[in-house]
Design goal:
The chain has 335 residues and is an alpha/beta fold. The protein contains 15 helices and 5 strands.
Amino acid sequence: MLRVGYYKLTRAKEVADDWVWIVDHTIQSGNMKCLAVLGVRLSALADRRDKPLSHEDVEPIALYPVRQSNGDIVYQQLDECIKKTGVPRQIVGDRGSDLKSGIEQFLEKHPQTAYVYDVKHFTASILEDAFKSDLMWVEFTKWASETRGTLHQTPLSYLEPPNQRAKSRYMNMDVLVDWGTKVLQFMDRLEECVSAEPEREAITKKLGWIDQFRRDIAEWQGILELVAKTEDFVRNRGLTRDCDKHLRTLLRVPPNATERTLKIRWQLIEYVLDESLKAQPGERLLGSSEVIESVFGKFKYLQGEHARGSLTGYILAIAAMVSTTTQEVVRQALE
């Protein structure tokens, strides 16, 4: 596998002016992390309407394991990638401090490159701004966490809340809200769903607290539906001029929508409008770096089986798992 990864990483890439670089750092492992650069041509995206990128669609451009990273180092790494593909038309990624600083330095030298903020990281940032000081949300997460502890490894464990992540929790806010919505529906039909009275009493004792959040959960669910529609829109359709007009139609809200719901709706539309203006007429830019997050997830799983949490030469697995792997690719890699 590592031979295949090394071959894919080092084989010649076609130099062109329509490359998109998808960039991100792996999670810190020991005292190291790695900048990964995956690439796809805009000409290839034109034939993939209404379908997100898969691992096979992207080409490994570079892997840079480092013990220290900052804006200057990221800039040097990106500048080195030009030798492989030429100056890219677009870079898509999050806004981590060193990544953002390095990309901005790159754009100063190469203004023809557009830097697009990944849609999933953007939506997580506006959800964090909206909810980190919301006392009802803080209280709900606290109750859910405590309830998980009391239901785990009991006959009622099928009702336990999902585990809450310590990092990037607003990227997974929907999982917890979906649980709350389903539990409310279950509690409303408790007598129909559970025949034994002692079990109903135990469930009410453990989960009766959730009823006080009924109105809040309804609002949160509505907001997250807007977010999900925006993410799917950008992930599947990309960013084209005037695409915000289609999104406005898609993000309809009921007349009784809360002020916060209306504000977040506008933030989502404004994001798509701002990012789509970076596209040239007739051009379709990439708006999601989700594919690299997926690759990292798979790599983390494989790494856990072999490298015990530190970065090793096994980093080449990232290059092996992307782009197409045919018999001919394997033959050339082994030769």
